[in-house]
Amino acid sequence: MSEREVKVSAQALAEACGDRLYSLDQASRAMGIELLGIEPGRAVMSMKVRDDMLNGHASCHGGFLFALADSAFAFACNSRNLNTLGLACTIDYLRPTRLGEVLTAVAEEKNLAGRTGLYDVSVTNETGEEVALFRGKSYRVRGNLLPELNTEHEA
Q: Residue 133's domain spans which residues?
């Protein structure tokens, strides 16, 4: 281990990665998406539906639901300090969401093998009803979010 590399617990590493990624994620912050929790392979994020997110049917535009789920996916994928990108993703919209609703996305790692991973994201409303289901495939590339905590050899 070099002078710059430091060993930390998996949970502390996930939290540090979440903090770094959130500080760099202007898109999520602009949409009011908040990071509620992170651990290795898992992330929880929320977003309140604003009036500028409504479509012509007065429900939240699907693109914003996708963005919330995609952000949770990204945070879960990158929670081990290994730069990881989305390779493919799909979403199923289950019910409309309305102005003022607070939505929560929970991303959970289902499989991690070599450079690829599979993640499921459930988006729920304030009453716990699922409003969307998202599945993402990830691909690990070179590098780390926190180079000073080099973990590139892992996974």
A: 10-148
Strand 42-48 and strand 84-93: the pairing is unpaired
Taking CB atoms within 8 Å and a gap of at least 24, the contacts of 85-89 are: 85/138, 85/139, 85/141, 86/136, 86/137, 86/138, 86/139, 87/116, 87/136, 87/137, 87/138, 87/139, 88/136, 88/137, 89/134, 89/135, 89/136, 89/137
Phi, psi (5° rounding) for residue 100?
Answer: 90, -15
Q: What sign for the dihedral angle of Cα 143, 137, 79, 71?
A: positive
Q: What is the pLDDT of residues 91-122, one digit of tens each?
A: 999 999 999 999 999 999 999 999 999 999 99
* Residue-level length of the chain: 155
- What is the pairing mode between strands 130-140 and 84-93? antiparallel
pTM of the model: 0.92
Number of domains, the chain: 1
Q: Quick check: is 155 in a domain?
A: no
CATH number at residue 140: 3.10.129.10
